[in-house]
């Protein structure tokens, strides 16, 4: 167990005001966080937090204990930083998976710069649109555009994005552009067939919501296959704005029905996540994910296109 783990859990719950948020921040599960706090309270012989179904509050003992607990963690962090500097640069193999579309340009660019900065690192990337699991497939983490499906996994957010309709200028010239999502049954639609890809297309705008189950004119189990089919003029597809908007800016794609975006069945926009086992993530993995997140910010991911 990590040094001062129970204290770290306690401080995170106080600062996040939530076991779930604290667990996500520290890369563990809510049940593990609860057990760690209970062990700390048993060790101290005092209840530090009063829990209810709606909130978490400090007890009198917790209010007295928190300042000293926070100071212990700060001192530990200082000591770890000094040891890390003495230990030198990160080394070894990072084995992870990522969607195929990340391999077109974005991820190789980040890996190239990271390899120049930290030559002791090596990378093994499994590009796949299938769901690879960190525990089962012996990965340090798995990048995917969905939340974890198992309580043993933790999602580390990278960037938010939105999904819109896109086609090539050639397709629009030959077949016209739909004026509303309701027109899509009269068009050629390209669909991604990966198991966890949403089958219903749920459109929302400021004024209305439309849900469609469409028959595909072209299917592909590959994100790259879908994108290449759209660029070749085979039809219309839903694509993430982080992937499609740079191509639209260069005139290679056209965004259709711009007042609408495509959301989940719960009405939410997706996030790109790194999913890892609840036992934690190595420092070299966090180094890569931090670099990827910064690159995404620099490219404007999350600053959604108008509409």
TrEMBL record:
Keywords linked to the UniProt accession: DNA-binding, Transcription, Transcription regulation
GO biological process: DNA-templated transcription
CDD domains: PBP2_CrgA_like
One Pfam family in the UniProt entry: LysR_substrate
Presence of keyword DNA-binding: yes
Residue ranges annotated for the HTH lysR-type domain, each copy included: 7-59
Recorded coiled-coil stretches: none
GO MF annotation terms: DNA-binding transcription factor activity; sequence-specific DNA binding
Recorded family membership: Belongs to the LysR transcriptional regulatory family.
Designated name of the protein: D-malate degradation protein R
Gene: dmlR_10
């Amino acid at each position: 167990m990590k040094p001062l783990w129970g204290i770290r859990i306690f401080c995170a719950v106080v600062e996040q005001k939530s076991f779930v948020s604290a667990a996500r921040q520290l890369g563990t599960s809510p049940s593990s966080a609860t057990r760690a706090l209970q062990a700390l309270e048993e060790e101290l012989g005092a209840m530090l937090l009063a829990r209810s179904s709606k909130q978490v509050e400090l007890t009198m003992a917790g209010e007295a204990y928190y300042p000293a607990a926070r100071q212990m963690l700060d001192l530990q962090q200082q000591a770890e930083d000094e040891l890390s500097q003495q230990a030198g640069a990160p080394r070894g193999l990072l084995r992870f998976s990522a969607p195929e579309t990340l391999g077109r340009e974005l991820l190789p660019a980040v890996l190239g710069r990271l390899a120049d900065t930290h030559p002791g690192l090596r990378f093994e990337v499994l590009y796949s649109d299938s769901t690879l699991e960190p525990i089962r497939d012996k990965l340090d983490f798995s990048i995917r555009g969905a939340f974890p499906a198992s309580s043993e996994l933790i999602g580390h957010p990278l960037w938010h994005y939105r999904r819109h309709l896109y086609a090539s200028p050639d397709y629009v010239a030959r077949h016209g552009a739909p004026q509303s999502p309701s027109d899509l049954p009269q068009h050629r639609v390209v669909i991604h067939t990966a198991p966890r890809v949403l089958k219903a297309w749920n459109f929302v705008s400021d004024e209305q919501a439309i849900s469609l189950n469409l028959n595909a004119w072209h299917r592909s189990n590959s994100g790259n296959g879908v994108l290449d089919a759209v660029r070749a003029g085979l039809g219309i597809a839903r694509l993430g704005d982080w992937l499609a908007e740079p191509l639209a800016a260069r005139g290679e794609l056209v965004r259709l029905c711009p007042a609408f975006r495509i959301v989940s069945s719960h009405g939410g926009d997706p996030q790109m996540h790194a999913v890892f086992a609840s036992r934690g993530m190595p420092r070299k993995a966090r180094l890569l994910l931090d670099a990827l997140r910064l690159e995404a910010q620099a490219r404007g991911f999350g600053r959604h296109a108008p509409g």
